[in-house]
């Protein structure tokens, strides 16, 4: 069958060049029965023989927007412009739904569904007559899920995001998605606002259609889709309601038809160089700590080696030059007006940080962004005068885990003073572990004075990785107990095998792999153990003897391993059985061997 598929691909039709995979359904005299069946039912929405049998590319539009996925709902409108672009370029659009994801509503966590959306798109792209696809990205997990699917199937694909919401405002100040929740909670806890004002304040951050307007995981992942080359240049930052976004939708529709004719596939675009570019860019924009999980996953599906060492090697020394919340003060509209991603990339090109990797428009990222510039230096800063130096992630190892990342640029001066500058070694600190097993345990006990948390404690959150808390919860960033907050101690170091929200600014060591639930040493840690974190050596260790650890390991095994709550749905159970660690992208392990599968079609 592989040979046949190859032959089918290279055979030419009169009108358009290479034979398209959709013609195996719609124009295949050697299988007349099935062709007739495919055609009669597909035509029933009004298509003609002429359209289906003249070698016109069939372009899928993977629709992620719906009433339960409001961050992507604008795609219902944008899809009309995408279709016009597809038509004008000579293609035919087939819009179809895939499994919806919405970050803030899905329980227990939206990241449980990233791999489900991935699966749903893989099955459609592989099993239906589709020659190329527009991926409608937006909300956090929808972008990586679709890029992962495009990587697995490897037919031409291009991403278009719904676009960030307009800036939120409250009493003359910008209110940003996610970041306002942390702030409003503090105000409510201090008694300055009540519940209705709290809700109003948070709602003010969402003034229009679109995805989050801060540099949280949504804006990060869409920026990285553009950085990888999987969108048209300048696409990611356009606010959802702007006219420019409608225009971009049209151009994206036109371009995917050409990509099919050029056979420009995800594997041509998402190369090792493209991933390295994306890592550099993630530091410059102040990207989310979820980015390594998702990018490592996409890389796994396309077959490019990539791990957290690469994140440190290529990303750590890159400065933060985008002044957006949560790291800075502005929001998406300001960022777009200042030039968006092309202006950021232009700064990096000038410092020789970007490699020439081909993008969806057929030109390289360097071609696309050279000569772009920031029109507002307070929003997109010069490389030489950044908001923060060394804005990337460090990759930690030790006897607590094999890999966990830390964003050191969020360490506050107060924290540095308390932990690092008074320590014997200014790059290392020791503290006493306080261990929580999941968010419920943490909420129940954090303010309990019996725990005796001090300003030098280190908080641990375990049991919240991909298996322990299906999908991995965003709960590693923990606040200090009330009695310390009142003394002005705002941030304690937090370490855990889960994730943290892209809109949070905690100095955490997170995404620890292996997680406690799959046998990681975090499961052996006890409250009261001393731990040592060495920023220079990138080590995180519990100062517990090997003999003692062996004893604890034996005791843990005797009780059947680390205990975690049962699954609540079939998918939770299925995913838990086959999912990998966060450091490896939290992919479905059996899925990774299916690469470039459209070549096996036939
Ligand atoms: Fe969907 Fe932020 S909650 S983009
Ligand atoms: Mg999030």
Automatic annotation (TrEMBL):
Residues 56-367 form the Dihydroxy-acid/6-phosphogluconate dehydratase N-terminal domain. Gene3D superfamilies: IlvD/EDD C-terminal domain-like. One of its GO terms (molecular function) is iron-sulfur cluster binding. Keywords: Iron, Iron-sulfur, Lyase, Metal-binding. It holds the Pfam family ILVD_EDD_N. InterPro entries: Dihydro-acid_dehy_C, DiOHA_6PGluconate_deHydtase_CS, ILV_EDD_C, ILV_EDD_N, IlvD/EDD_N, Sugar_Degrad_Dehydratases. PANTHER family: HYPOTHETICAL DIHYDROXY-ACID DEHYDRATASE (EUROFUNG)-RELATED, HYPOTHETICAL DIHYDROXYACID DEHYDRATASE (EUROFUNG)-RELATED. Belongs to the IlvD/Edd family. NCBIfam families: PRK06131.1, PRK13017.1. This is Galactonate dehydratase. It comes from Pseudorhodoferax soli.
């Amino acid at each position: 069958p592989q040979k046949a598929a190859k032959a089918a691909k290279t055979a030419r039709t009169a009108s358009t060049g290479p034979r398209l995979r959709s013609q195996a359904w719609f124009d295949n005299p050697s299988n007349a029965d099935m062709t007739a069946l495919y055609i009669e039912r597909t035509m029933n929405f009004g298509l003609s023989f002429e359209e289906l049998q003249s070698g016109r590319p069939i372009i899928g539009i993977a629709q992620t927007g719906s009433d339960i996925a409001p961050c992507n709902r604008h795609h219902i409108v944008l899809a009309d412009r995408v279709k016009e672009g597809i038509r004008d370029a000579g293609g035919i659009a087939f819009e179809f739904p895939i499994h919806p994801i919405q970050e803030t509503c899905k329980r227990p966590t939206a990241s449980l569904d990233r791999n489900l959306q991935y699966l749903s798109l893989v099955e459609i792209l592989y099993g239906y007559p589709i020659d190329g696809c527009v991926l409608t990205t937006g909300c956090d997990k929808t972008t990586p899920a679709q890029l992962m699917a495009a990587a697995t199937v490897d037919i031409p694909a291009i991403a278009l995001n719904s676009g960030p919401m307009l800036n939120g405002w409250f009493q003359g100040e910008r209110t940003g998605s996610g970041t306002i929740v942390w702030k409003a909670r503090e105000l409510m806890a201090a008694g300055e606002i009540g519940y209705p004002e709290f809700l109003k304040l948070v709602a003010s951050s969402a003034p229009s259609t679109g995805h989050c307007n801060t540099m949280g995981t949504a804006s990060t992942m869409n920026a990285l889709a553009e950085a990888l080359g999987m969108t048209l240049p300048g696409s990611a930052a356009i606010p959802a309601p702007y006219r420019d976004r409608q225009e971009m939708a049209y151009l994206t529709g036109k371009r995917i038809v050409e990509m099919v004719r050029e056979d420009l596939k995800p594997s041509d675009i998402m190369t090792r160089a493209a991933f390295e570019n994306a890592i550099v860019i993630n530091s410059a924009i102040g990207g989310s700590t979820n980015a390594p999980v998702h990018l490592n996953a996409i890389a796994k599906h396309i077959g490019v080696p990539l791990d957290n060492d690469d994140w440190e090697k290529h990303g750590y020394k890159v400065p933060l030059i985008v002044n957006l919340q949560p790291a800075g003060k502005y929001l998406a509209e300001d960022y777009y007006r200042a030039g968006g991603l092309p202006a950021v990339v232009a700064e990096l090109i000038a410092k020789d940080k970007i490699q020439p990797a081909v993008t969806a428009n057929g030109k390289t990222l360097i071609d696309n962004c050279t000569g772009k510039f920031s029109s507002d230096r307070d929003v997109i800063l010069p490389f030489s005068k950044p908001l923060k130096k060394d804005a990337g992630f460090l990759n930690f190892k030790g006897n607590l885990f094999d890999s966990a990342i830390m964003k050191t640029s969020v360490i506050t001066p107060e924290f540095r003073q308390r932990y690092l500058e008074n320590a014997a070694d200014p790059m290392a600190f020791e503290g006493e572990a306080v261990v929580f097993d999941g968010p419920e345990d943490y909420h129940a006990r954090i303010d309990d004075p019996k725990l005796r948390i001090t300003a030098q404690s280190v908080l641990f959150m375990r049991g919240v990785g991909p298996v322990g808390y299906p999908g991995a919860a965003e709960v590693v960033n923990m606040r200090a107990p009330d009695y310390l907050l009142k003394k002005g101690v705002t941030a304690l170091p937090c370490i855990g095998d889960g994730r943290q929200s892209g809109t949070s600014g905690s100095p955490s060591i997170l995404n620890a792999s292996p997680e406690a639930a799959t046998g990681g040493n975090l499961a052996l840690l006890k409250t009261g153990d001393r731990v040592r974190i060495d920023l220079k050596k990138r080590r995180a260790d519990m100062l517990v003897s090997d003999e003692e650890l062996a004893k604890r390991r034996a005791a843990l095994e005797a009780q059947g391993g680390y205990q975690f709550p049962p699954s609540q749905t079939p998918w939770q159970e299925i995913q838990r059985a086959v999912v990998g660690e966060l450091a490896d992208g939290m992919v479905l392990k059996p899925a990774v061997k299916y690469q470039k599968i459209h070549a096996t079609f036939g």
